[in-house]
């Protein structure tokens, strides 16, 4: 389904592959001018941009580290120079997940996750909010995870940071509502992407068997939800966590 995002500018962090690529594609298909942020994978970013352009969409790539304040400023300035003020901010960039028992966890492990899921959204928001407040329009969409509910063992650095991200989402929604800026979080289930290429097939089958819909999701399931939340169809939805996981959690 396509939503009307014509003339809107969207910045998608970590937007060149996996869920980010699906989100970038869905926003572009709905008419948004999409700024695809990436850190290292230039080839994949260029390939996605060219694919979107080939389909009649509008997109450009912007390299940078979204956990670094100076880099974020440069990214946002470049996006505004190319497309205009940012209307839609999708905070999707992530890091390689670690599985460690409590006894082996270091505080640095916790901080690494918090930098992606709390520091990065904060620095990005500080860049885009002045223009959003002035126009009295904005969409901030954080990409969370179902793990906050499933509480996977040996994953507490990731789970706790995702919990902090949810708290941030709700508090910001309350603070920014008067400016007609909505803030929501999309929580995917386990959706196979490039990041999961080496995951055991039996684990995937077991997971899918326990999902009420008896299958795993597709990255575009997340892309479509983000496009919906970015559109006027969702203008009265804010402060919400919307879980997209085939019913794997029901809360």
Summarize the structure.
With 251 residues, this protein is an alpha/beta fold. Helices cover 46% and strands 15% of the residues. The chain has a single domain, classed as 3-Layer(aba) Sandwich (Rossmann fold).
How does this model look, in words?
- With 251 residues, the protein is an alpha/beta fold.
- The chain has one domain: NAD(P)-binding Rossmann-like Domain (Rossmann fold, 3-Layer(aba) Sandwich).
- The protein is 46% helix and 15% strand.
- The chain is built from 8 helices and 7 strands; from the N terminus they run βαβαβαβαβααβααβ.
- A 7-stranded parallel sheet has the order 3-2-1-4-5-6-7, sandwiched between helices.
- β2, α2 and β3 form a beta-alpha-beta unit.
- α1 packs across α8.
- The longest helix has 29 residues.
- It is globular.
- The two termini are 26 Å apart.
What layout of secondary structure does this protein have?
Elements: E1 9-12, H1 18-29, E2 33-38, H2 42-54, E3 58-63, H3 69-83, E4 88-91, H4 107-135, E5 138-143, H5 147-150, H6 156-176, E6 181-188, H7 201-210, H8 219-230, E7 241-244
Parallel strand pairs: 1-2, 1-4, 2-3, 4-5, 5-6, 6-7
